[in-house]
Structure formats: structure tokens, C-alpha cells
Amino acid sequence: MLFSELILAIMKPLNRQRTISSPYHLIKGKKSGQTIQDIGYFGLYPYFGIFPKLDKKAYDQVIKSLFSQGYLLANEQVIELTEKAINTSISDTPLNGWKYRGNEILFFNRLSLIVQTLSHMSQSVKIFDPIVNNEEIQMWVKKYLQQIQFRDLAVVQAFKKELFTTLADSAISETHKMILTERLTGLALSGLTWQQIATSKKLSVLDVQLMTVEALHSWMAEIEKSKPPLLLGLMEGVIQQSSLTATAQRTEKLFERGFTLEQIASLRQLKTSTIEDHVVELAMNDPYFNFKSFMSQELYKAIIIESKSQQSKRLRDIKEHLPDASYFQIRLALSIKEENQ
Amino acid sequence: MNLEELLYSTYGFSSFRPGQKEIIEKVIAGEDVIALLPTGMGKSICYQLPAKILPDSVLIVSPLLSLMQDQVAQLKKMGEKSVVAINSFLKPEDKDRVMNNLGSYKFIFISPEMLVQPFIKKKLQEIRVSLLVADEAHCISQWGFDFRPDYLRISEVLPILKFPQVLALTATATDKVTNEIKEYLALIKPYVYCHPMDRKNIVYDIKKFEDNREKLEFLRAFIQKFKGPGIIYAGTRKKSQELSMLLTEQGISSAYYHGGMEHQDRVFVQQQFQNEEVEWICSTNAFGMGVHIPNIRQVIHFQVPTSIEGYVQEVGRAGRDGLPALATLLYAQGDEALLESLVMDDLPTKHEIAAVFNGGSSATHLIDQGIVRETAFRVIAYWMTKLPLAGVTSQIEQLRIGKRQQASKIRELITRDGCLRSYIISCFDQQLINKPDNCCVNDGIEYGVFEAFSYSEKKPIPLDWQGRLSVILPI
User: Fold this and answer.
1) Of A123, A129, A190, which is closest to B277 when you measure between CB atoms?
2) Fewer CB atoms < 10 Å away: N or C end of chain A?
């Protein structure tokens, strides 16, 4: 998937309902109520937090080229896609941003340092400049290497074999796999800079960075599935046990103990609207979420029907026809996974 | 154990480079030392080895963050664990632990800004320091090409440390600068080691052009004729990228390097150059520190350097193996105007001086608001503590004169008819003994020797991911 394609993939469901910068917040992984609930409303789980360091200027540049290539129409308020954009088909992607939350970088940094160390040590070179200078990762890798007894050449061979097998079994293109290995470095072969990789493939730096994230998500899924003993160790702490943000988890605990939203807000010294954001997040993540304490079954149904008939998830549109529903109730109803209710 | 044995057991080297042994012997004997050693001559060994023998901590004041990080990394690479760096990168959660155990570290690196913090001073009073090292000691000199006002304040900690033994290290210093180092560090009778500045195997060339376009044309032909490994110094990040692209278009392998790249990309480029996977590096002056490649054959300055000292350091990265190396400076008409503005740019203006005087030395909001530039602020704020307004103004005026001299030295280099080699070393108050046959453009250069060098063809780069992994992990 190319970067511009990624933006289109996100913009399609958001068309005429959200602003032009909302895809930016989504891929940056912004943890605001709005961004989090949009993920649920619009089914944008794959794209959350896949570019934590994305530069706004770089994003704006891509938006500019989408305009000049006739994918976007000028609109002050919301995204407005052209026919051409709507008819563009989006290729399948192994992205799973909601699950990995930017932690693929942790996985890959560990891997890079391990591969570099094994490459040198197995060829009897003990001194080299570490490719990762983050001390936490260095300590982690040191411990890991001691645990697997990395001085044993048989272990290095087993590690290499796991790399080959799991990468071969990952459902991504050969180009994806090539890019990944071009970011690895060893004694007799150096890694390549983002610019070098991009130039050699006639792509942009953002394109190859996106492909790297895709490759990592696919590879990590394969490692979780086939559970190779050595590589599986690298997944430690990479996957969050709960898909909730930490702050929503705290709200969940208090809610389960019977506090009202207002009480939770005053206990946590947060605004009630923030706590409402958390409830929406809980609803998104829990297929059996019980909304009864927030609205009646009738109101829930009415909101869903209204949203469908208008083909819109804009709160204002719905509120106009259902003045008795609060904005919070509308947001909550829209975030609930319908098939389970 | 004698020094050679210690050197071998610590670094695996069987002999010292010129100058190292004399310096180390004096340090171990307890003398103050000022050592002028060119870059790449192993300056850090001069305190690392004595540290093995001296009883207490070695305190190294290092003015450049990147340099400090590099030296810490080098020490750790050698297996030394008792190292700590006190600078703005030190995390708050580590600070207490480090500070409470400060005396237990063998090597304490510190930035001049941190050195004069009251709580640091207090801690320093409690620990025992065998040796104070002033690295890049020329920064002490207000005449030097990178004067750092905070560096002058090293003298404030000397009494706190009970006047320890001092080792001042620098790659470039004139007599004037050496005298200032003596004065500011209160060294009474230091041993001064002065390494000959002249590098016989480096040939100095200057090419003059009408404009930038002609420079590019020259460069295109040059890289076809002369082989690397080589460095092309560009003035800006953008230029370094453009030049690298130009080389790639000519089918010559190259990579660009500058401080704006992420850490991993920079390490990759260094490795590629070291592994001879790329022939040329196009870089800002960020490239070079921590890079130890003996066979660099070419150094090109695409833009006029801003000081002789900087020029000599950059050129000095070539030919460490002792074989001939060519230094080519490209000059186009009008470059000196650019040079002047670059050099003068750092200096505080009258407005800035007035603003800082009115605001006081803690008025850092002037920097945030863009009224005073950061370096200008540091210079003014320092002098304000020492002098009244008129004094500061005249001090800055002195600096301006110094800077102008610095620029005029470069101009002299470009316009000179006589021997460039003897001119360059005369800038460091040394005299040329033994002029090599192949010397400089004004005495005629024999290019044949450089044309004769070949660049070893790089090993075939694997074309698929399986191939790459097999080369990285060949077992």
C-alpha cells in the first residue's frame, strides 16, 4: 500500500463527515475521545497509530498532491472526495494498528540489535557501533541474548532459520520483505537509509516506511501464530493485553464498582465529557456492552435507524431529528457493534 | 606493567602514535599538560590510559554533546563500564542515582553548562578528582573559531576541586590560544606538546570558477577521473542531498549525511562508508567525528570553509594511512561575501546587547520570542556578569575583529600565490620544514599519483531478502 492510498482508504468512510486533518490524528495515534470513537464508528482499526512520528508538513504535502491529482475537492469544513477517489479500489493491507499500537518499532529495534550482535559475534568480531542507542532496548537485548545462550553457534543457526521460515510464511510481497531486510545491518553488509531504499524502488520515503509497518504487522502476526521459540521472545510487552487506552481502563474499573459518570469524573478530576469518551471507548471494544443504564432500547433503535436513513454519522444531523437524545447517547449508540445487540 | 603493555592489553595496539607516549608519561608524573594533537591522532587515549593508573575519578569537560556521546560510546565499546555523562540528556529519574554515586565513576563527562550549576559544584566538592581534562580546549579562547563562553567558567570549579592536575586537549591552537588556555586554567608551568601540523601526504588544491554551475561541471568530471573513498563537504543539509543525487546520476555510489537524519540512518551511512559499499559521502560538517577510516583519498570542499581551523580538521580526515590524499577547495566568485556573512552571523548585534542588558541574564524569553539568538544570548549573558555595558560592547567589537581576521585568513588562502602548505601551518605559528615534492596548486600538482588509485569494486549486493539475510548471518 502506498501512502496516498492509505490516506484515501481512511478518507473514504469519513467522506463529508470529518475534517481533512482527522486522518492525520488517526495515523499519529492521537488518544483523544473523538479519534478513538471514530475508529469504532468507521471501522478504522487497521490504521490507528501506524505513524506515531508523522510530520504534519509531510502529511500536508501528500494532501496537496491528492488535490492536484483530482482526488479531493476544495471544502472548508470536511473531506470531500471526487468520483475518482470514491472509485479507487483500496488494496488489502495487513495493517493492524489497533492491536500493535506503534509497538512494531520496539519489536524491530530489538530485532535489529540482536541481528547486528549475532552477525558480529558469530564472526568473532566483538566491537561494533550499536545500531540502537536507546539504553532500555540495549539492556533488554543483553538479557535476551544471555537467556538464549547466543554464543552457541547452533543457537545462531536456529535463530536464522526462524527468521527465514517466518518471513517466508508472512503474507506480504517480496518487496515488503526486501525492505525489511534492507533496514537490518551486519558485519559484511550495512543497512540502507530510508532515502536509499525509496530511491532504489522509485517510491517516496513515506511509502517505504508504510510498507515497513505493513511488513512488520504481518510478520508479527505470523510469529504469534506459528510461535517459533526464539522469535516469540521478542514479542514480550509488544502486544497490549487490553485494547483500551490506560485511562479508559481506569474509568472501566470505577464504573464496574458502581460509581456514576459524574462521580468518576470528580474522583479522577476529569471532565464528565472525558469520562463519556471512555464509555464510548468501552462500548467499541466490548461486543456485549450493556447500554441500558445510559439509554432505553427504543432510543438506541431510533438513533440507529436515523443514522441509516440519513447515511450519516454526523451527530448534528441525527440530533436534528431526535432532539430528545443527548449527544453522548448518540455517540454511544453509534459506537456499539450492532450485530451483537 | 610498562606503558606499552598497558596499551596492548587495553586497546590491542602494540605501539603509540607520535606524541601519545610523551603526553601520557607527563600526565602520570603529575604534571599539567597542554597537548596539541591533530584529530585522528588518538587524543582520548591520553586520558584513558592514565586513568588506569591514577587513583581517583577523571573529570572530562567536553563542549560538544555529540562529541561527548561519541566518547562515552567509545569507552563502553572498549568494555569500560564506569562511565557517566552529565548533560541535558541525563534523565531526571537517573539523576539522583548518578549524583549520589558520582565519586564511584572512573570517567565523568560533563558539559561546561552543567559544570557551573550550584548543585553540581556542591557534589564535586565531595568527590576526589585525580585529573581534570579540558577537551577541545581551544573553545576557551575568545579568538578561537568556536568560542564557548561557558568554557571560561571552568576556572570557577578549580578551587572546588582543590586545583587538580589538568590536561588540556585540542586539535588546533595558535600560540595566542595556547597562552589563553594557560591563563584561564591557571596553569603555571605546563608541559606543552605541539604536534607538527603539517600532513606531508596531503596535497592542497584550489579550483576557481565563475559561478556555481561551473563548480558542478567540474565535480562531475572530477568524480569520474578520481576515485574515493572521499568526502565532499557541502555548506548546507540541502546541498549535501543535492550533491549526493548528482553523484548517483553519474553512476557513482554515494550517500549524504547530516545532523537532520535519524540515528539509524546515520549509522548506516557510516557503516556503508567503512565497508566500502559507498565511494563518496556528501556531508555537512557533522560527518567525521567518530569515523575512523584510514584510506580516505579525497576531501572536497564544495563551499568555502568558514575558518582555517575547521578546514584543517576536515582535510585532516584524509590519508590517515600515510598514502597520498588530495584536498580540493572549490571557489566561485562571490563566495567571500557569503563567507563574511556566515562568519559574522553568530556575533551579537547592538540591539541584542541592549535587549539582554535590559532584560537581565535570566531573560531567556528573549530567545523564545526571537529577539535574541541563542548563541548571542549566551555570549552577552556571560560578559554581562564580568563587565559593564560599554565593556561588553567593546568586547564584542574585539570578537568582530577576530572573526574578520578569521575570514581574511580564508580569503588569503584562496587568493595567495605562494605555497599553501607553508601558509596553512603558519596560521598555527609553525614553520614548514621539508616541503614535499607534491605540495600544492601554486607549486604545481602531479595528479597522476591520484589518478592511479583504484576503488575496490564493491562486493555484489544481494538482490533478494534471502540473499541479504544470508550475508548478514553467514553461519
Assistant:
1) A190
2) C
Residue B454 dihedral angles phi and psi, to the nearest 5°: -110, 160
Kindly list the residues from chain A whose CB atom is less than 8 angstroms away from the CB atom of residue B268. Answer: 131, 185, 190-193
Name the nearest CA neighbour of B106 among B60, B56, B72, B67: B56
For β-strands B325-332 and B298-301, DSSP reports them as parallel
Which residue out of A181, A202, A218 would a mutagenesis test of the B interface target, given it has the greatest number of B Cβ atoms within 10 Å?
A181
Closest C-alpha to B426, from B413, B443, B437, B439: B413
The single residue listed with the C-alpha cell 482499526 is: A45
Provide the 10 A C-beta neighbour count for residue A227.
11
| CA–CA separation, A7 and A19 (whole Å) | 13
The per-residue pLDDT for A24 is: 95
- Judged by CB atoms closer than 8 Å, whether chains meet at A163 and B469 is answered as yes
Q: What pLDDT was estimated at residue A23?
A: 94
pLDDT of A242 strictly over 90: no
pLDDT digits (tens, 9 = 90+) for B138-196: 877 755 545 667 777 888 888 888 889 999 998 777 788 888 888 888 888 999 998 88
Q: How many degrees, rounded to 5, is the angle at CA B279 between CA B274 and CA B281? A: 80
pLDDT in tens, B219-261: 999 999 999 899 999 988 899 999 999 999 998 999 999 988 9
Judge: A188–B267 Cβ closer than 8 Å, yes or no: no
Residues of chain B in contact with residue A119, where contact means CB-CB under 8 angstroms, are 472-473
Cell numbers 531526571 correspond to B92
For every residue of A14-41, DSSP letters joined together read: HTTTS-TTHHHHHHHT---HHHHHHHHH
| C-alpha triplet A149, A152, A154: angle, nearest 5° | 115
Cβ contact (<8 Å) for A190 and B268?
Answer: yes
Q: How far is B64 from chain A (nearest CA, A)?
A: 18
**A240 burial class (0-12, 13-18, 19+ CB within 10 angstroms)?**
middle
Q: State the pLDDT at residue A250.
A: 87
* Whole-Å CA distances, B182 to B35, B192, B399, B475: 12, 10, 20, 56
β-pair type (B191-194, B202-209): unpaired
| Average pLDDT value for residue range B303-317 | 87
Is-contact B233 B301, C-beta < 8 A? yes
How far apart (Å, rounded) are the C-alpha atoms in residues A256 and B68?
Answer: 52
Euclidean distance between CA atoms B384 and B32, whole angstroms: 31
From A47's Cα to the closest Cα of chain B, the distance in A is 24
Helices (H), chain A: 3-14, 22-28, 33-42, 56-68, 83-87, 97-100, 104-121, 135-148, 153-169, 174-182, 194-200, 205-226, 229-232, 246-256, 261-268, 272-285, 297-310, 315-321, 327-335
Q: Quick one: cell of B218?
A: 567540474
Query: Are A107 and A222 contacting, i.e. CB atoms less than 8 angstroms apart?
Result: no
Q: Over range B80-85, report the average pLDDT.
A: 89
* B→A interface, C-beta within 8 Å: 73, 77-78, 248, 255-256, 261, 263-265, 267-272, 275, 277, 290, 459, 461-462, 464-466, 468-469, 471-475
pLDDT averaged over chain A?
A: 89
C-alpha grid cell for residue B417? Answer: 600565490
* b/e per residue B171-196 (b: at least 16 CB within 10 A): bbbbeebbebbbebbebeebbbbbbb
- Number of neighbouring beta carbons within 10 Å of residue B419: 18
ipTM over 0.95: no
pLDDT tens, residue by residue, A86-106: 998 888 899 999 888 889 999
Cα A204-B252-B468 angle, rounded to 5 deg: 60
Q: What is the mean pLDDT of chain B?
A: 87
